[in-house]
Description:
Strand content of chain B: under 5%
Low-confidence stretches of chain B: none
Number of helices of chain B: 17
Mean pLDDT of chain B: 86
CATH architecture of the domain at 225-386 in chain B: Orthogonal Bundle
CATH topology of the domain at 225-386 in chain B: MetI-like fold
CATH superfamily of the domain at 225-386 in chain B: MetI-like
Radius of gyration of chain A: 22 Å
CATH class of the largest domain in chain A: Alpha Beta
Largest sheet of chain B: none
Oligomer: heterodimer
Radius of gyration of chain B: 30 Å
Structural class of chain A: alpha/beta
Largest sheet of chain A: 6 strands, mixed
CATH topology of the largest domain in chain A: D-Maltodextrin-Binding Protein, domain 2
Distance between the termini of chain B: 50 Å
Amino acid sequence: MKKSVFLGALTMAGLAAGAAMAQDSSTLAAVKERGMLKCGVNPGTPGFAAPDANGKFVGFDVDVCRAVAAAVLGDSEAVEYTPLTSAVRFTALASGEVDMLARNTTWTFSRDVDLKNTFVGVNYYDGQGFMVPKDLGVSSAKELSGATVCIETGTTTELNLADYFRVNNMDYEPVPVESFTEAQTQFLAGACDVYTTDASALAASRASFEDPDAYVVLPEIISKEPLGPLVRHGDDAWGDIVRWSLNAMIAAEEYGVTSANAAEMANGTDNPEINRLLGVSGELGAMLGLENDWALNILTQVGNYGESFEKNIGENTPVALARGLNAQWTEGGLIYSPPFR
Amino acid sequence: MSDTTNSLSYVRKEMLDQQPAPRSQVGASRWIRENLFNGWFNSILTLISIFVIYKVLAGSLPWLFGGVWDATSLEECRAILNERFGNTHYACWAVITERWNQLIYGFYPDTEYWRANLAFVLMLVALAPVLFDAVPRKLLWLTIAFPFILVWLVWGGTIWGPLSVAVGFALAGLAFKLTDALDSMAVSAISAVIVAFLWWLVIGPIIVGGLDSALPVGHLQEVESRELGGFMICVIIGISGIAFSLPLGIVLALGRKSDLFIVKTICVGFIEFIRGVPLITLLFTASLLLNYFLPPGTTFDLTLRVIIMVTFFSSAYMAEVIRGGLAALPKGQYEAADALGLDYWKAQRLIIMPQALKISIPGIVNTFIGLFKDTTLVMFIGIYDMLGLSNAIRANAAWNGVYWELFIFIGLVFWICCFAMSRYSQWLERKLRTDHR
C-alpha cells in the first residue's frame, strides 16, 4: 500500500511537471485570477518593509508592491507579503513563490544576466558605508586595516568589502551575520569593530541606538548600490507593468501629481503628459493590458515617489534619510522616469 | 544468677530527658555546613558562587522588574526611563504589550480571535483523555473530531468541507470492516484507501458544493494561511507534527523490522533519507522547490506543506526511537506472544507495543520537544512565527533596536511548553513503572 501511494505521488508530480511545461504562464493572468499580488520583501531594514502594530505592512519597498497591486487589481491592499532572506530571494522569485521582489536588492550584471532576473528600475540609489564606535578613533575607512567587520552573507556588500580592502592593501577579519538585526546586536555587543552595509541602513541603524552619538558613519562610500524591484526573465509584459508602475510614481512627482490632487487632475489638465499618465487621453493602460486608470489608482492609493519617500524614510521619520542622490533629476538627483508617450 | 533488683546497678534506671541535638547537627545550620562549607576548598567555592550569583541578580533583576510596560515606541520608552531613573538600563516590555496580539495570533483578523482561543481550549480538552486516564473516556470522541474542528475554526469557510473529509475516513473504516471477512490485511487496507479517495476526490466535492449552497450553516469568515502566525502557528504545526509523527513512526519502526522485503526497503530508505537531510532543507523544498513541480496557478497551502515535511522529519526520528524500544524487549516476549497463538497485529497491540513504547517514553518526548522547538525554523521560509515576528517588529521604525525583551519573552513561552512536556513524561514514566527496582 505504501508503495502504491508513493508511485502515485511520483506520477502526479510527473504529470504536474508536464503540465507546467505545456501551460503558457503569464504572471499577469495568474495575479488577476488570484486577485492577489505576491511580493517578496525584506522585513529587516527599517522604513523599507515592516508590519505595524495592526499587522499592516508599511515601508518604502512595500509602496512599490502596493503600486503594482493598485495598477493591476485596482486595490493597493491586495498584496501578500513574503519575507525573504538575502540567501533565498532569487530562488523564491524563480520558483514562482513570489511574483516580484521589492526587497532592497542591488542591480548587478550577474544578477540580471546570469541569475535570469529582470531589474525593472531603481527606487533607491544607495552606496556601501562603514560605521564604527567613536572610541575606535578612526576618521577614514583607509585606517581600518586589521579590523573585525560585521558583514551580511550572500550580499553584494560582502564582495565590495573584500575588493575595497584588497585594493587598499589592508586586511580584515569578517564576522559573518545572517540579518540586519543580528548585525546590529553583534556590533553593539562589540563583536566587531566595524559594521558595513548600505548607507541608508547604517543611518537607520544608528538612529535606533541608545546613544547614537557614540558611533560615527565614515565618509567613504565604497560602492554603487542601485536598489530596485525585479521580476523573472521571460515575462516581459509583466516586467513592463512593474517598471511603469514605478515610473508612474516617479513621473507623478516630477509633474506635481500627488495623492491629494490626482483625482482632480484626472478630469483633464493642460499638460498632455499628465493627461496620458492619468488616462485622460491615450490608451497607455490598454497597452499594458490594464485598465486606463491604472496610474490614477497608484497615485490616489499609494501616492507619488516623493510622498512615499517622505512618509517612510524621509527626514521627518526615525530613519531620517535625506533625498541626496534620490532627488528628482530636475533637482540634481538621479531619479528619472522615461516619458509617458 | 543475675539479680535485677540488685541495688548496685550498672544500668541507669530512669531515662534522662531527651536533649536537643547540638545546633550544628540539625536544621539549616547542618545543611549549610554539610553542603556549602564542607572543608576550606568548598567554602571558597561557595563564597565565589554567592558572589557571582549576587552579581548576576544585581545586574538583571532591576533590568527585568524596573522595565516600562506602557509605551508605543522604543523612543518613548527610553524617554520614560530617562525621566524615571536618569538612564535607560532597564527593560522595555512595552513592546510585548503593544505587539501581544501579533506575537500570539500573527496577522489573524482581530474580530476572529475567539476562534483561535476556542480552538486552543478545545485542543486542551481533546488532549486530556489521551494524556490522563482518569478523564472520562467519552471525551475521546472529541479527540477524534478535533482535527476537523481545528481546521474549520482556524481556516474558516464552510463546515461541510472538513465534515466531508471526516466522512471519507469513516467510509474507509467501514470498508475495512466489511472486507474483514476476507481475512486479508492487504485487501482490507487497499479497499479502504480506494473508498476514501473515491469519496474525497469524486463524490465528496459534489456533495459539499451542493450542501454549501443549499444549507449554508456554519460558514465562518475564511482566513488564509499567510495570516496565521506567532505562537498560534507554532502550536498548530507542533501539535499536528506530534499527533501524526507518532503513529507514522510506529508504522515505520515496524516496517523496518518487517520480513517483507519491499516494505522493509521502503521504510529503511525513507528513514535514512529523511534523517540524512537537515530539516531546513526539507522546508526549503516544501516552500520553494515544490513550485517547480506543480503546474503554475496551483496553490498548495504552505502551512499544509510545512506540516507534512515536519511530520516526515520527526517520524523518521520517532521510528528509530521506537525501534530502540523494540530492540530492548527480551526475545521471550515475542515468543510468549507466538505461544499464545496471537497473530502479528494482535501480538504487536497487546504484548509488544505497550512495553516498547513504555521503554521509549523519554526518547519519544525528546523528539516531541525537539520538533516543537524546530517549528521556529519556518521563519526562514516566510512564515511569521514568533521569531520571524520579532524580526518584523524590529524592522518597524518604532521598535528598531529592541532585542532582549522579545527574545526573553519567546524563550519563556517555549520553556513553559517544553518543561510541561518534560514533566508530563516523567509523571507518565512513574505511573507506568511496573518493575521492582
